[in-house]
Automatic annotation (TrEMBL):
Organism of this sequence: Tomitella cavernea
MF-aspect GO terms: kinase activity
Organism lineage: Bacteria, Bacillati, Actinomycetota, Actinomycetes, Mycobacteriales
Record protein name field: Diacylglycerol kinase
Domain (2,4-diaminopentanoate dehydrogenase C-terminal): residue spans on this chain: 145-350
A matching Pfam family: DAP_DH_C
Keywords, alphabetical: Kinase, Transferase
């Protein structure tokens, strides 16, 4: 019998999740939640751009969807600007005995050491008491910097450092709030965007550093180290969702570093441009406009670049697809997992079984 699934939101990730749920033979889409009343009553297939109806109408009625008693909610709603409200939403689902796979808040990818211990226990206990599991993942934070680097370290004889890097041109990334409010692109360099407030980088990506460290049996120094560098635009230009004026912030490179005895052992790095030619001295993908890079320094030293692009060539579109499908493809495993918060190391091997037909 197919697992009954509700998709929560139909934005840039959610529409790909709907397509993915429809493609998986062991999943049945039974409901769709939307925040925009204008989308209510529209068919899920239309909202996902599938060109055909799926026979499931979107709704803003949360209680009606919970009354369907789904086996799992695929939660892809925007959480970057409402982290703690989103946590409450997830706890509510767990309290009601519904398993959840979610793209955020990303700090729940591995919350130990990121959130206060009593808050982690509260979320975990909601799952245990409700008999439901919560898995937060995607591509970054997610597969590119949890499963991929940890599997790569299985080839190591000695590990000196693990570095996970996202290298991307965000000029086609259609998320205005993230681009302007979080990253500060198009804003004066003397303004400090939300992402660069003290502690925020470690809040957003500390889960990555801490999960890799836990997988390697490392006890990190506290606190994690944050570093960043910004560069201005050398001319006016437009991205798909915002204008960047000459002299305003146009490129950002940051690191979240876990050290042991002062030695850098686990590094999460982002290199974000808003035009391809920017910051020539910063790391670049070997080809294309973006990649996820894992570097394990030691014996042996290894580098893996995960290049990606959508069928129409855009890497930001494929990033959204990978985030959606990392969630959708884990639904069956998460439903079968132990109750509470689960992470990538708690799940069996997850594949795209059923998608190659």
């Amino acid at each position: 019998m197919a697992l009954r699934v509700v998709e929560w939101s139909t934005g840039t990730v959610g529409r790909h999740a709907i397509a993915g749920i429809d493609a998986r033979p062991e999943l049945e889409l039974v409901g769709v939640w939307v925040s925009n009343p204008d989308k209510a009553g529209r068919d899920a297939g239309e909202l996902a751009g599938l060109g055909r109806d799926l026979g499931v109408r979107a709704t803003t009625d949360r209680d009606a969807l919970l009354a369907l008693r789904p086996d799992c909610i695929v939660h892809t709603a925007m959480t970057d600007d409402r982290i703690f409200e989103a946590v409450q939403d997830l706890v509510f689902f767990l309290d009601n005995g519904i398993n959840v796979v979610s793209s955020g808040p990303v700090l729940l990818q591995y919350p130990w050491g990121v959130l206060p211990e009593d808050e982690v226990e509260r979320i975990h206990a909601a799952g245990v008491q409700g008999g439901a599991s919560l898995y937060v993942n995607g591509i970054d934070p997610g597969f590119a910097n949890d499963v991929l680097p940890l599997v790569l370290t299985s080839l190591s004889q000695r590990i000196d450092q693990v570095r996970c890097t996202e290298i991307a041109d965000y000029s086609t990334y259609d998320q205005a709030m993230t681009m302007t409010e979080l990253f500060g692109f198009g804003r004066p360099l003397d303004e400090t965007p939300f992402l660069l407030q003290p502690g925020v980088l470690a809040l957003g990506w500390g889960s990555v550093v801490r999960q890799i460290a836990a997988g390697l049996g490392l006890t990190l120094d506290e606190p994690l180290v944050e570093r960043h560098e910004r560069l201005p635009a050398d001319q006016d230009f437009d991205t798909v969702c915002c204008h960047v004026a000459e002299g305003t912030a146009a490129a950002l490179r940051f690191e979240v570093v876990g050290t042991v005895g002062g030695e850098e052992k686990v590094v999460l790095e982002h290199v974000t441009r808003t035009a391809p030619a920017q910051a020539p001295g910063w790391p670049r993908p070997a080809r294309g406009d973006g990649c996820y890079r894992v570097e394990v320094t030691g014996q042996p030293s290894m580098t893996v670049d995960l290049h990606h692009h959508g069928e129409h060539g855009d890497h930001n579109d494929s990033g959204m697809i990978m985030t959606a499908m990392r969630l959708v493809n884990t639904v069956e495993a998460v439903v079968g997992a132990k109750p509470g918060i689960v992470t990538a190391v708690d799940l069996p091997l997850v594949t795209g079984r059923g998608l190659a037909s």
